[in-house]
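Model the whole thing, not chain by chain.
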Amino acid sequence: MTDSSLSVALSELTEAQSVAVAWRDGPMFVLAGPGSGKTRVLTTRVAKLLADTPDRSFRVLALTFTNKAADEMSARVTALVPEQERRALIGTFHSFCMQMLQQHGSHIGINPDFAIYSLDVDRQEILRDAIKQAGLRPDDVRLLSTIDKLKSQLIQPAGSARYFRDPSDGSRVEQVYAAYEAALTQANALDFGSLIAQAHRLVTAFPGIAGRYRKTYAYWMFDEFQDTTDGQYRLIRALAGEDFRNVFAVADDDQIIYQWNGASYQQIQRFRADFSPQELQLPTNYRCPPAIVSVANRLVVHNLQRTTAKQPLEAGKTSLKYPDEQHICVLRYSTDDVEAASIAEGIAKIDRAQWGEVAVLARTRYMLEKLQSALTQKQVNAVISQRRDDFRSPQFLWLAAVLRQGLRPLDRRALEILTGAFNRWFGTDARVDLIVTATELTERSLLDEWAVAVKAGLGDDVNGNALVDLAATFAKEPARFRQFVDAVLAMIPAQDDEASDIAEDRAAWSDLVRSIGKTIGRDAPLEQFLQELAIRSKEAPVGSNTVTLMTIHGAKGKEFDHVYVVGLAEDILPSFQSLKAGENSAEMEEERRNCFVAITRAREWLCLSYADNYRGWNKQPSRFLLEMGFSLPDQPSQ
Amino acid sequence: MQISRLKISNFRSIKEAEIQFGAVTVLIGTNNAGKSAILEAIRIALTRRWGQRGTGFTEYDVHLCDGRPDPKVGDPVVIEVELQEAVANEWPEDLQGELEDIIQLDPVTGRASIIMRVSCSWDAAEESFVPRWEFLNVDRNPLAGRGARAVNLQEFFQFLPVFYLEALRDVTDEFSSRSQFWGKLLRTVQIPEPLEQRSKRIFDLLNRRLLDADPLLTNLATGLSHISSVAASDAPGQADLRLLPLNTWDILSKAEVIYQTEGGKPWLPLARHGQGVQSLSVMFLFKAFVELILSDLYRPESTAVLALEEPETHLHPQAARSLWRHISELPGQKIVTTHSPYFLQHVPFRDIRVVRVEANGTTVSSLPRQFRAPVPHVPQIDAIIADSGGIITYDRSLNELVLSGTLPENQYRNLLVAYAGRPDTQGIHAALRKACDASQEFISDAELEKLGTFARRIRGEIFFARRWLLVEGQSEYQLVHGIAKGLGYDLDEHGVAVIDFQNNGSPEIFAVLARALGYPWLAVVDGDHAGHDYIARITARNFSAAEIARRTYSLPAGFLEQQLVEDGLQNELKAILVSFGNAAATDFDNETLISALENDKSGYAAVLAKQCAENQALAQRMPAPFRDAILALRGLT
């Protein structure tokens, strides 16, 4: 059965895809354009490597950029080779580093049950406390982003001063950075940047651990390699050492859109220099109609920072829904408001059952919000889809914070969140500072003292009191957190409105629980559940019959039948900053890639629109429209 | 892969114990000392069966003592199993791949280790003792993430199957078709289908012929067919007689081992042989099982762990002696308990574990090559390690400081300094102190080897003794037995082993052996130059002056004969010589008497010993050091 599902999958590959999938030993670099089936190549290759070696015990490592993508890849590999699933480690850079630190972190003083601080507000709180304790300047809390930058370059606190031109600035940053790291260590916590930085520290301090990973994980694969940051790339290098060659990277240098986050064409060049890989191109696009492929090619050749020998995309899609000349339309409007209203009107005309396959993409959130209200007016369901680091509703914020408090009874930050959330939920007015003071007198736990405080304000609210009691019971036996969660979920009010925060959070929660269960099992203890919760986005899955509104960055890796790209005007796409940087700047090239990514999301139909006026300022149509070779409307359509 | 160490707390008779294991480990100790508790701890820890009653722990498994009368209240039962590579990549690659998520690593040497902990305490909500299995990191914190998945446990158990052969081995059980080795072996037998069919046809034919041979059989079958008329069923049934097996499994399941002790003797089923042969056959059955089908039932890289109770049962001493070789050649890791001095004679010293029950529960003593302190690694110790000449190392796959020999005082001081000024300094210093103290008991391989050749004759029995009395030679050996008997303290009855160290090695090796293995000991030596030298040599092995004063006695007048004369026993001694036919002895002066006795040491000593044994008054006149030592043996610790 599985044998056949793998052989079916293999037989469905194109010739070029087959070559990539069959690649066995040695370094390989696959340049895969949008819609060229790279996920299929990766998952089939993982499955084939495992299926070809049923009696071996080595594992295969495949890293991608979002947990969602990793979950999907895992599911596909499991479907292809279920009995070998254990041998595949498919995850994100962050989840991989988290695992490495859970297993071997003790050699650099990291306990396996560390917490992960993913929210900037939490981190600022930690830093503020650290600064206070160390007697540093309170306003240095704004150095958090500087710290993050250092961390992303894998610079440890000790000696970080020398990276600053001004020695006094340097020593100030070093002190703050050191205090911040010490505070994280004391809280047994890591932030996102630390996951990569500490994993790098571990394998460079102890090459034996890197050696172990080389031995156990005989083949490594990297998805979206173009988005690898400097730190991630150096981690790969450190893990690979001098001899490891079985690295397989899939990338598209035309889809680098995270330059601001450290992604760069440089990483691709470093990979080529360090590993001298064989190169293979997958230029055939099976996603977009030929018309879109052709404008995408015309657009992207204007970039210079790309693989010289890169072949243009080839149209490979055979069954088309619309006649050839009806795949793209370009629309001009007088103002941004008109643009939003008209696009919304257009969408409203589409059959409601298709809305789930419609996306509106924009360079920034500004246009998305306009679109959302315009669509709401037309009674079209639409959500702005983006990574969410935290829940929205007080109900779920409270639930997550109580779980955290149960695991770490001294966690002040969790107390603040759960107090604030509960106050919002039930209109109580418990105060964190009073609760903390009270615990010093009564020696009760923070949670117990919170319970006393809110009960005073709850009166005879049945639900409120019941929740407080549930929390108190849970705190005595944190291991039974699942019962607590189920009981709380049953008490969180249902709301009819699908777009409400509670409904979204509830959908996100069950999605998260499913995904976490798949990764670490349904019986995993609380500390691991919270670790996994921390590294995942709390965004609700987009419901059916709902239009997706996304920034172009968020749309990476996604595809839709109907795609609207709005705001194609100078200063918007390309952005004001890129124009300032100059016509041939790296920034301008990144904007062009943004446009390239946006238009190649469309499976059937693409609508490009712009207005003459945004936020009251007159704007020229985007140069990218001209580069793509469109003749523009003489007049705004309304 | 094999178990390298077991740590047990609050389990049955064991309050707290740590036991190191090798390829073979031999546990000795009196009944109820806790040997079986150790074997059981391994069995429970390594054989979890989900949803099956009778695995895990019960209230009777909790160690109870004065401070803890209720098994439901108090610290949990904890069993920690450690497995460690001796060198990097000792474990097969496939095993490492399968167990990757639970393997811990010495990041410097690359040695892998696995630490598993089973803990169990009363769960009021579940109303039962709930056990918890988890794998740990080098700091003994539970692994998170993939290392915490339950599937790891099943994989791990596959590589380390445990088999238990109890002291009471019944050959009919062990060779039944449902037994753990024989039954599984039989079930793997594959008879080709054509042969199976052909056999069936032949059985049927033969069965029919046999039934037809005597009308009685046919009538019997007809008579039995009336069953159906009683068992109210509509369809009429039929009974028949089967004289032959129905199929090949019927035959296989009745397969029986027959054995001929020597040529010319009859072939007999095992159960018809003596108990010794039966007992041995089960062990060899295990061997066949492991060699033939273990890798099919488990994995090619699996190591069988065999817990074997009293393999010597029913065996002649000569057979018990040679048993050691056979057991050490069995595949897998063996953990053996024994009560046989003969068996023990050939067991290497390092493999012996002495198990005792003391006031605080079971203790386990051994002669380790290494002494370990669970202290963290700090950079400051690297230089101390480098300068230690190999005595100190740091094991990062278990996070322990390792002493491979006696730790010199100055190095100990340096270590204390290296760990000074930390919040946990106190605990670390205590751990270092403990390891350093233990390392004073270190005995080198060379010394043990020497002892092995000298003392083979006595080594079996001295390990089963309760106390040791060291004397110089054969005459003292005889005399102390006689004196003790005369004084009403029979040394054999009280489990005192008298060791005449001149014939068997040196006094200090026995003293350090006694200290390391926990045997209370005393020594009586001559007051001459050689005797002083003996005491000096013992003292040099890190015994305190107080210990030496308490444990050693010397004859003030010099050697034994000088002392006997000094104590005014001339008449008795002369009479013995006269009885040997030396009539002139009556007139010997002291000096001549002494030298005459010296010429016939064991002869006169044997007679004098016999006289002492029968004559309490005479025994009371024997040299005070002997009498004092014998007196001190009672209640000696």
